Structures are given as structure tokens and as C-alpha cells.
Amino acid sequence: MASSATEEAKPKPRLIVRLGVFLASHHILFSAICCTAGVIALLFLPALAKNTYLSENALIPGSANTLFSTEDVLEANRFAKGIEAATGESRGGTEIPKFIAQQMKNLGAEVYYHEFLPDSKCFHPLKFFTSMTNNMAVKPNGTYTNFGINTIGIIRAPRGDGKEAIVLVTPYNSQRVQPNELLSLSLGFSVFSLLSRVAWLSKDIVWLSADSQFGEYTAVSAWLNQYHNPMFLSHPVTLATKMYGANRIIYKPDGTTEKAELMAFKRAGTVAAALIFKVGETRKYGDRDSVTMYAEASNGQMPNLDLLNVVHYLAVHRQGFRVNIETFSSLLTSSWLKVIAEVFHNIGTVLRKVNPDWKLDVTVPDYVEGTANLASSIYNQALGIPTGSHGAFRDYQVDAVSLEFGPAFHLRNENAKSSFLLRGGRLTEGVVISINNLLEKFHQSFFLYMLTAPSKFISVGVYMIPFALLLAPLPIVAAALAGSSKTKGKLLDECKTKGSADDLQIECGSWKWLKSARVLLVIQFWAVLVSLLPYYISQIPGAMPIQYAVIWAVLSIAILIILYAMFGSPFHAGVEWKLLKATMITTITLGMGLMSIINFATAQLGALILIPMCLFSRPLREQLEMTFLPRTILLVSSILLTLLGFPPVAFLIMNGLSKGSWTVDIVGDFWLWMEFLWEWSSATYLYVFLVHLPCWLLCIHVLLHPCHQPESKMKQE
Amino acid sequence: MAIRHYWSMAAAAVGFRLVLVLFGGDLHLASRPEVSTPLTSIRRRSMYHGSPLLLSVLGPLTNKSLIFVAVDFIAAMLIRATGRKLQIARNRSLKSLDLTEAVSNSVNVSAGDIASLIYLWNPWAIVTCVGSCTSPVENLMVVIIIYGACSRLAPLAAFGYVMATHLSLYPAILIVPIILLLGYGPDTPPTKVFRLKNSNASKTDVSYDEKSSSSRDVRQFSWKPVLHFTLWLLFWSSYVLLLSSIILNKVGGLQEMFKKYFFAEVFDFFRSFFLIVFNMNIIFMVLPLAIRLKHRPCFLAFVYTGIVAMLKSYPSVGDSALYLGLLGLFANELAEMHFTFFLFFGYIGVSLLSPVMHNLWIWRGTGNANFYFATGLAYTCLQTVLVIESSILHLNSLNRGFLYWGLVGPGPSIPLPRYHY
Hints:
The complex is a heterodimer.
Chain A: H1 2-8, H2 15-25, H3 27-48, E1 50-51, H4 70-89, H5 95-106, E2 110-116, E3 143-144, E4 148-155, E5 164-172, H6 179-195, E6 204-211, H7 216-228, H8 235-240, E7 242-243, H9 246-249, H10 256-263, E8 270-279, E9 290-294, H11 305-318, E10 322-325, H12 329-332, H13 335-354, H14 364-383, H15 390-394, E11 399-406, H16 414-437, E12 449-453, E13 456-459, H17 460-471, H18 473-492, H19 501-507, H20 513-537, H21 545-567, H22 577-598, H23 600-616, H24 620-623, H25 628-645, H26 647-659, H27 666-679, H28 683-703, H29 709-716
Helix pairs in contact in A: 2-18, 3-14, 3-17, 3-18, 4-5, 4-6, 4-16, 6-16, 11-16, 13-14, 14-23, 17-23, 18-22, 20-21, 20-22, 20-28, 21-27, 22-23, 22-28, 23-25, 23-28
Chain B: H1 6-23, H2 52-58, H3 64-96, H4 100-105, H5 111-121, H6 123-130, H7 135-150, H8 154-168, H9 175-184, H10 191-203, H11 208-216, H12 223-247, H13 253-263, H14 271-292, H15 297-311, H16 317-327, H17 340-364, H18 369-404
């Protein structure tokens, strides 16, 4: 009695269940609204940028008077003359380290050389998940005539306990020193010589004059690697690795003890922060000198925002530099962006009238500039490749920033040069003072942010809104698709199905998705194989990039066909397309969620391409049965989006948008680009091949699905 | 009904493990915190916290993972045998209820095959096997307990029990399903069902003799195997203690081992508090579950292992590999489980999320321990959903089964419990 009563008066499901059912039944409308809102929110981001502020009170930038004076400028000039004299005597490039070491020694600093070898190209996209110590697995072996020499000086802090250090880096090419590199070296030396005299240091100062003949990143990362992972090479390896010429040039023929001292790797404490500064080429005369900040490290990591704040504050408000960040200059002049800016300005003014607290009405030039900067910031983070040698520091959790000084005068102009050295030295000294004040590691301010201007940022809480909006419809759509196929399935196999043993599980009710999961697993397996192929392909010597790329493509297709022959093609497996699409959408949700943690910018850009593509995907055969207008719209948009989603095409468009130039050799360029990504062990490579490509292939499967199968099955039964 | 290509799939799983053992050195699985916990890791022998017996067996071996491959294979075979035993027991109890029709009608996939394949191909089982930690051995011991109890081999069950508790202490709660299994047998329909059958029979005027004959089939709790088990338990435990004392003679004797057992697993501060919180949670659930699921001791054992995997200190994916393998034994009952899609992708998502969060916390420094902890929470939630869903479905399927077999009529006299959530 009681049971029948409860059966009749079925309890009303909970609110959240009803809400879910409601959303699932309107999933098309819901996903359209969410995706549009996501794109609009993304375009709104430059208007939502906030001004930066200093979070860490201990930094107090600019509170102390800088001691860097004209004396130090004279010192710098003397140093530059010395280097010019040294290089004038002998070409070959090993005179400069010797001279720098001598000068540092004269200041009373500890000096040593660090020899390193250029990185060989190797395939390690999976390095992301492994620890840094694995770098040491590569043991040099053989003879090398070509190697770099870093010269390092350490000042022990008079008031410190030697547990922390600040690293200053000046990269220069030891083979051919340019006048601007000479200027940055002398700037570095003058700051170092000043710091060797001051009494207030509580952190050791390390000056690394990095030999950038193989690229500055290689030099800095080789030094950092040895700094953090002491190498205990066995004797034979040390013997086998001979760097020819080292003995001849650096060491005096008699001084064996001195040699040992100069080659012994010395360390200071934990690196608290690092500042890389170099003087760039003169770009334009007359205007103020500028400083360009580079901050993006590997996989979209950024240094703590406080470090950038200190640099920006001192450079702008104390030393009168103009501070820039990287920008897409092609966007600055684009007319469509101006139209969008106008629209947003108008919306902003209306909103401001509604509530004066909403300050969304950015002016048109501000919006355009912010968008260009933001686009560059997102692009650099999404690539996952560091924009300079600061990236090497970030791999060891050290906050670092690269400053490229852009002098606005000719480098022969002595007066302008002196004034520049004075201000540059004061800026560097000021930053060192601030970092020296720190009691803890940088932790107060943001790590996850994007810059729209040197003093404007978008924090993680704001920039994830567009992404969350884009991602929100996916679980709903997946639930709706799986649910609808389940109800249909129940009608179908209400009767007991009798089949072979392993089919039975799949046929009945809630385990029907197993077939589509099998398709997914096969495709994912294929994707893993495709992503590993370049390791073997790149072993083939002496081929053009386009040849590599063609081999890659052919092998991938062959593997796919073999896998289908082994595990059964999804077209014959009789998988319902709705379940296939639900599986695809769930995979995208998982992949995007993971990628947004690893590298948010990649996930953001990927979501823009992938999510509309998979939401629009419906079997073409089913689309043909619709009326004309929706049919054409759906057909055109799904085919267009699928075309866009193909990684090489997506790459072509990204490349064209970022550089403003459209290349013809897509295939070869795609190979080069991928090579670039895996050499830097960027997680973007993993994203492209383990998330993007499988989802694209699943999308193709959904589009080409022969959707008449269930009906024929029903007839048979 | 057996699964096609069972042996080729099993061989492929073993081959895959061997390939990973021999060539997967770059994966560094042994250093993943999800795979080898401080309690199960044998990578750091100087800080080995596990059983001294196991160390003396495994210690001298150079490639320990090969042993684990064999161990995993044995465990899978035992799971398969357990599945067979369960099926036979089930068919027998159906026959004893004169339901031969039901036996031939019900399309039964060989659950043992499915379960052993799940165990062999479970990526987590593979990862724990390759990652050289002691979890495969612990899992094997638990499987031995269940197999021994199902086939009523008291010495084997006692050996498994002694070894499993010696290795990790948590399987101690499995004493309840062991005693139930030994006492009642693997599949005992509740006595209520027999009474109902008899009342149904009496309606249709069946003679008294038949009634009495069927009521004789109601299996009573038999104490003999349980006593047997207890004796063997005493024997094996004294044997293991003796061995351990011989091995530990050099490093301070048995006292050291007990100290380690009870106190190595938690922090120094709040030791007693943590001990209570961690372990009471598990112990609280033992009795209610035992009362509710006493007719299906094997399923009870699965629920216990699931709960232990959820609530133990230093959980690892190896624990999950065990209960997911056992879950396959009930494939027939769980064919209509809810949320399977969600659970499957949830498990995949969590197992990918965990290394990413770990990287963010340890290597990048932009995240902190809470990120990793959140993944652990999500993982526990998934396990909770799995255990609750499967228990609800199991209980419902029991009831529905009786309804289908015509034992519990839809008549008004018997309220049929249904489980909603």
C-alpha cells in the first residue's frame, strides 16, 4: 500500500535537478548565449584593465636616494674604453671575459668563469611534466671547439647571511661586441662597482655577463642549471669533454692554482629576483629614452607583478624613461578595431550614465592600444616560449624581468650617453634597493595576469570570465545529448537484446557510451602516436621542412588507417552520433580545463576555435533533411569552422593575424613552428596534438556520420 | 558466457606491462606521489616504511617490477576464479529456489572475466605495477583473502588476511566479510525469500514434504569454517611474527615494527587526534554496512575496500585499482548504473589533473598545496559517488531480482524497499 502510494505521488525533484533539466532542454539557446557572451567579454577585456599597484610594502621603491653618480658614469666609460682596447688587440672574443674578470677582481669581488655548450636541438615536449633535475641527464661527451664563457662576479653582502642573492644579467656576444652591447656591459659594470662599495646590501649580488653567441637564453639557462643542480661528472666524462682553447686563452700558462680558482663554480644563496638589462639599437632619435619590459616565461608564466611595478614606477616617475611592453603594431592601425572601440566606447558611456561607478568608457586610442598590447601578451603566453632569458629564471621559480633600453640618441653622442648611463644606473640601483628590502620571496601580488599597458593589468579573476562563459555550455550540451540518446535508447531496447557477450553490456541502457569511448580512446592513442612521430622524423638528416611535414602527414594518415583496421572504424561500429558528440564535448571540457591550468592563454585561444566548431557539428546527412535556410547556415558554418579548426589552417590564420603577413608555404612553416614548440618544451605542442587534433578528428567523424543506422537496426528487430 | 579473446587480451596487458617495465624508465613513475606513497614506496630503501618481510624478499632483486607484473597477473587470475565461484554459487542458490528457468534465462556475462580484464587493463593498476611500489602485493593479499573466503579455503583466507594486515593494517576490517563468506557462503538469499517461497507454495497447495525439503535449503551460519579460519589465523600470525622477529633482530626487534606500525603514518603533533579521525571514519561504517549487506559478503568486501581507499592515510591509485577490479565482479548487477559516463570521464579528468596540479605546486610555485588537495577532494567525491551508486543499484537489483523471479509478489502485504537518492 505504502509503496504504491509513493509511486503515485512521485516526489518533486530538487531545484538544482529541475534547473539542470531546463538548461539541457534549451541547450542550443543556452550555448548560443554563452558563446556570444564569451566573445563579447573577451573583447571587453581591455576596458576592464585595472591600474597596477604595489602590493608588497617592503619594496618601498624610490624611498632611498640613489648613490649612482657621475663618478660611476666615468667608471663605465673607462670600462668601455678598456674593452675596446682589449678587443682591438686580438679578435676572437675570449679577451672580453678575461678583461671583465680582471676588472671585477679589482673591485674585490669573487670571480669565476662558467663554460657551457650550445644546446643541441632535441625533441622533449614531455619535459613539462618532469622535474628540472632531469636536465642533467644530458652529459656532454666528445670534443668541442665552440663553447661559450660566462663571466660571473659575486659581491658578498656586508649585512647579509649569504642565504639570498640578486642576479644582474648583461648579455653580450663575445664574438663580436656591438656598441650597444658595450654600453650595456659598461652599465652593468658601473652598477656592480657601485654595489661593491655600498654598506646596505643584505643580499649577495651576482653579476652574470652572459656570453650570448648561442643566444642569451642558452647562456643563462646553462648557468642556472649548474647553479641549481650541482653536476658531479665522473672523471672520464670530464676528460672526454675537452673545450679546446680554454686553457690557452683564459688561464695563464703558469698559474695552475689560479686556474682552479677561476673555474670553481661559486654560488650565492637562493636567487630572490633577477634583472636582465641590455641596451637595444637606437630606433628613433629625439624622443625620450625608452625601456621595454619582457616578462613572459615558458608556458605563459609571468613574474610577480610587483617586480614589474617596481621597474615601471622607478623608470617612469624617477628616471623619466618611457616604458613599453611588446605590442602588435599591425593592430594599432587596423580600422575594424577602431570600429569595435567606438562601439565599446558608446556602450561604456551609456553604462556610465546608468551607474557612475562603472568606468568602462575607455577612449578609442586607449582601447586600440590596450587591445594590441593584450593581443601580444596573450600570443606570447599562448606560444609558451619565453620572450627572453628571464624565462630561464622562471623555471627555477625565480622572478625575473628583461629590460631592453631603447636609447633615443646616437651611440657616439657622449653627452647623451652619459646622461643615459646615469639614469639607467640609477634605475638599476633603485630596483636592487627595493629587492634588497624584501624579507620574503615575491608573493604578495599577482602571478596570473595579462598586461594591456605597462601600468595596466587584467588579473586572473577577470580574464577567466570569457573562458568560463565559453566553457559553460559544454557540460550542459553533453548532458543533453547523452540524455536524449538515452531516452531514445530506452525505447529501442526496452525488449531484451541478446547479443554476443561484450555487446550486451554496451547495448543495455547506461553503458551505451562505451562504444563512443572506445572510438575516443582509439583516436587519442592515434594522437599520442602522431605527437611522438616528429622525434623519429627529425632523425632523418638533410630534408627540407616541407618534406618533413609531408612525411609526418602521410605517416599519421597511415597510422590512422591501420588503427581503424585493428580496432574497427567508428563508421561501422554503429555509434550514435549524439553519444559521439557528447564524448567529444566531454573531452574538450576536460582538455580545456587542464590546459587552462597549464597555460591559460593557449586554452583561451583554443577555446575560441574549438568550442564553436564542436557545438556546430552535426551529421551532414541529418542537416540535408532540414529546410533550406537553416540547412545552408548550418552547413556553411560547420564546414567553415571545421576547416578553421584544422591545426595548420589555424596556425596560418594566427600567424597572419599576428604578423600581418600571409605566407604561402603553410606546410613547411607548420613544421618549423612545431619544431620551435617542442624544442622549447612548450605545453602548447601537447595541447595541439593531444586535445585539439583528436577533437577535430572526432568532429569530422560527427560530420560524416551515417545517421540512418539506428533506424535500420530498429527495422531489423 | 565467456568473453571472446579473453586470453589474448590478458596476454596483451601483461605484455604491455613488460614493455613499460623494460623501456619506460623515463616516465619516472616511481617518483609520482599518486603512485608510490611513503608507505608503499620501495624506491627509497633507506626510508622504507613497509613490511620487513617484503623487504627481505624484494630487496635483493634488481628489477623488482618484473615480480609485480607476475603479482598482478596472479591477482587478476584469482579475481577471475572468484567471479566463477560467485556465479556458481548464485546459480546454485537460484536452483535451490527452484528457479532453473531464471538460471537459463538470465544472460550472464562472465563477471570474473570482465573483472580480471578491468584489473589487468586498468591504467592505475599498470602504473602502480610499473612504478615499483608495494601496492600490487597488498592488493594481491586482499584478493587472496576474498578468493580464499569465497572458495571456503580457510588456510588461504587466513594467510591472505595475516599478510594483508601485516602489510598495511587497513584490510583488518575485511574480517567481517570473511566470516560472513565462510559462515554463509558467497551467495545467500535472505531467509525471508525462502519463507515467501514457502508461503507462495502453500497457496497453491503443495504438500508438506516439499515445503520442508526446501526450507532445509536455507543455509544456516556454519561455525566450522570460521573456527578453522581462526586457528589458521593464529598459526599464520605467529609464523609471520616469528619471521619478522628473526629479520628485525639486527635493528631492534619486534618492538620497532609495532612502533612503526602504529605511529609512522601520522605527524608528530596531534598524533592521537589524527589516528582517531582517520581511522574512526572507516570503523564507523563497518557495522551498518555489514548489517545491510550481509547477504552479499563479496559485495560487502568491495564496499569496504572502496571505503578504505577513500579514507585511508596516504592513499594511492593502487588502492583504487583494487576496488575497481572487484567492481567488475558485479557487472551483471550493475548493468544499469547511473552516472557511468560522468564517473568514467571524472576518473580520467582527475588522474590527468593530479600531475598538473602537482607540477603547479612543486615546480612552478604559482599554485600551492591546496590546488593538489582540491584534486584529492574531487577524487574522493568521485569514489563516493561510485560506491554509493553501486550499493544502491546492488540493493535495488537484489529486490528487483526477487520481484522478477516471482518470489516477492507485487501484492500488498510486503512493502518492498526501494532506494532513492
